[in-house]
C-alpha cells in the first residue's frame, strides 16, 4: 500500500510558557518532533510532509536533515485547515494519508504499522486512532453506534453532557484515503465553538455520505499522550527513558 504522512507542527504551544515552538522542546537532547519523524520513517512512506507555521524557519532548520518536506500554514485555523495546506503537495499522490501530531512522541512503530494495516483491512476511507482514559479531560470524544461502529468524533467544547461522559478519546492520529480526505475537507466549515476547521469533521462527513469509517483503539494509552505543558514534557521524558 502506498502511504504518505502529514505531521502537524505549526502551533506555538502557549501553555509551555516559552517562545520556542512546542515541537522543538527537547527530550533527551532531541526535539520532540524528531521522535515522530523517526516513527513515521519505519513505515516507509512515499512522502513525509511537516506542516509548519509558528517560527516556521526555526522548525524547518531543526528538521533540515530529516528527509521531510515542509508546507506552511500561515494562519492556524485548526487541524482540518492544516491538512488542507497539503493538497498541492499531494496532488500526484494516490493512496493512504496518515496524519500525526508533532507533539505526540511516544507512538511505537509497531502500533503505527498496526493502525495503518487495520485501516486497510477495514476497507475504510477514514480511520481514527483512539484510546480509553480514566480521565478523558478535554479530549474529543469517540461516539460509537451499533456493532461498535464509529458514528462521529465530538470535540469537547462542542460535546453535550452525555458525550462528555464517554471515556474513549480521539488521539489526533488518522488514516485517510487521499481523494476522500480532500473531498470531505472541502465540505467543512468553522461552525463550532473554536471557529476552526476540524479534521474530525471530515470523518463525520464521510460517514454521513455512506462511506466506511472506522476506529482503532490503542492498547497503551501512553502512546498517544500529547505534550501541552512543561509537566507533561517531563512525564514523557521519563517514559521514553524507561523504554530505553
Report on this model:
The chain is α/β, with parallel strands linked by helices and 244 residues long. It has a single domain (3-243), classed as Spore Coat Polysaccharide Biosynthesis Protein SpsA, Chain A. Helix content is 30%, strand content 24%. Strands 5-4-1-6-10-7-11 form a 7-stranded mixed sheet. The protein is globular. The mean pLDDT is 94.
Short précis:
With 244 residues, the protein is α/β, with parallel strands linked by helices. The protein has helices spanning 32-41, 56-62, 79-84, 109-122, 161-164, 178-185, 200-208, 230-243; strands at 3-9, 26-27, 30-31, 47-52, 69-72, 96-101, 126-132, 141-144, 150-154, 168-177, 213-217. Helix 6 crosses helix 7 (200-208).
Q: Please tally the β strands and state the result.
A: 11
Widest β-sheet, arrangement of strands: 5-4-1-6-10-7-11
Instruction: Quickly give the CATH architecture.
Output: Alpha-Beta Complex
What is the fourth-level CATH superfamily? Spore Coat Polysaccharide Biosynthesis Protein SpsA, Chain A
Unreliable segments (pLDDT under 50, ≥5 consecutive)? none
The rough form would be described as globular
Name of the level-1 CATH class: Alpha Beta
**Helix percent band:** 25-40%
From the alpha-carbon coordinates, what is the Rg to the nearest angstrom? 17 Å
The assigned structural class equals alpha/beta
What's the mean pLDDT score? 94
Head-to-tail CA distance between termini: 31 Å
Strand content: 15-25%
| Helix and strand sequence | EEEHEHEHEHEEEHEHHEH
**Total count of domains:** 1
Amino acid at each position: 500500500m502506498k502511504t504518505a504522512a502529514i505531521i502537524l507542527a505549526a502551533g506555538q504551544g502557549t501553555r509551555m510558557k516559552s517562545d520556542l515552538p512546542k515541537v522543538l522542546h527537547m527530550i533527551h537532547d532531541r526535539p520532540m518532533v524528531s521522535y515522530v519523524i523517526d516513527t513515521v520513517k519505519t513505515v516507509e512512506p512515499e512522502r513525509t510532509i511537516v506542516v509548519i507555521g509558528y517560527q516556521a524557519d526555526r522548525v524547518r532548520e531543526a528538521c533540515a536533515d530529516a528527509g521531510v518536506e515542509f508546507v506552511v500554514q500561515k494562519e492556524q485555523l485548526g487541524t482540518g485547515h492544516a491538512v488542507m495546506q497539503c493538497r498541492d503537495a499531494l496532488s500526484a499522490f494516490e493512496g493512504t494519508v496518515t496524519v500525526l501530531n508533532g507533539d505526540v512522541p511516544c507512538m511505537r512503530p509497531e502500533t503505527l504499522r498496526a493502525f495503518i494495516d487495520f485501516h486497510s483491512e477495514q476497507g475504510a476511507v477514514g480511520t481514527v486512532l483512539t484510546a480509553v482514559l480514566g480521565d478523558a479531560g478535554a479530549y474529543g470524544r469517540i461516539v460509537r453506534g451499533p456493532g461498535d461502529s464509529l458514528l462521529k468524533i465530538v470535540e469537547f467544547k462542542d460535546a453535550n453532557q452525555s458525550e462528555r461522559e464517554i471515556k474513549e478519546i480521539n488521539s489526533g492520529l488518522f488514516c485517510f484515503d487521499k481523494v476522500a480526505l480532500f473531498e470531505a475537507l472541502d465540505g467543512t466549515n468553522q461552525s463550532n465553538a473554536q471557529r476552526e476547521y476540524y479534521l474530525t469533521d471530515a470523518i463525520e462527513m464521510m460517514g454521513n455520505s455512506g462511506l466506511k469509517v472506522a476506529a482503532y483503539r490503542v492498547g497503551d494509552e501512553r502512546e498517544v499522550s500529547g505534550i501541552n505543558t512543561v509537566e507533561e514534557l517531563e512525564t514523557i521524558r521519563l517514559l521514553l527513558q524507561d523504554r530505553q
